[in-house]
Write a structure and sequence with these properties.
It is globular and about 70 Å long. It contains 5 helices and 3 strands. It is of the alpha+beta class. Helices cover 32% and strands 18% of the residues.
């Protein structure tokens, strides 16, 4: 009979979801690496800025899709997805969350001279009405905060609760 395979539980979670992702359907999300990434204008933890109208489902699939690019950046071991929201306003074509995403990408480009690592769209964005809707200083403040402290989540490791004595099967 072949030897049995050993099963192990990894100490840190692969994905952690919090209620904040469920509170809004239409939102902007920012993928932040646990280390700062090098950009032309400085260093930032921000790797991607995206938007969704499908809530947490899109956020999770986007994080999975971009995980390879983010995790293979030099020295990156993990990343967090942070949520940025705003109120909905009537009369804004494609929604206020879409304009917020554009403002965040434009603000990031102003501060770091290029778009985030995993963003494809945004390098050719022209400023339109984004900063009439949102304060430029607030967008820059959020980007600076996420660039410095974006991936500092409250992670509690899973600890093995089985004692060595219990493992032998003796009672």
């Amino acid at each position: 009979m072949a030897a049995r395979l050993r099963v192990s539980l990894k100490p840190s979670p692969a994905i952690t979801m919090r209620r904040v992702a469920l509170e809004h359907e239409r939102l902007v999300y920012v993928i932040c690496a646990d280390r700062k990434l090098k950009y032309a204008g400085g260093y930032s933890q921000i790797a991607y800025i995206g938007t969704t109208r499908n809530g947490v489902t899109r956020v999770a699939s986007s994080a999975a899709y971009r995980s390879w690019d983010v995790l293979w950046a030099r020295g990156v071991q993990s990343f967090d997805v942070r949520i940025v929201t705003c109120r909905q306003r009537k009369g804004i074509r494609r929604g206020s969350w879409h304009r917020l995403e554009r403002a965040m990408i434009l603000g990031f480009r102003e501060l770091f001279d290029e778009i985030p690592l995993c963003n494809v769209q945004g390098s050719g964005f022209e400023e339109a009405t984004e900063f009439e809707t949102f304060k430029r200083s607030r967008i820059h403040q959020i980007i600076r905060d996420l660039s410095e402290n974006g991936a500092k989540s409250e992670r509690n490791p899973i600890v093995d609760t089985i004692d060595d004595d219990d493992e032998d099967g003796e009672d």
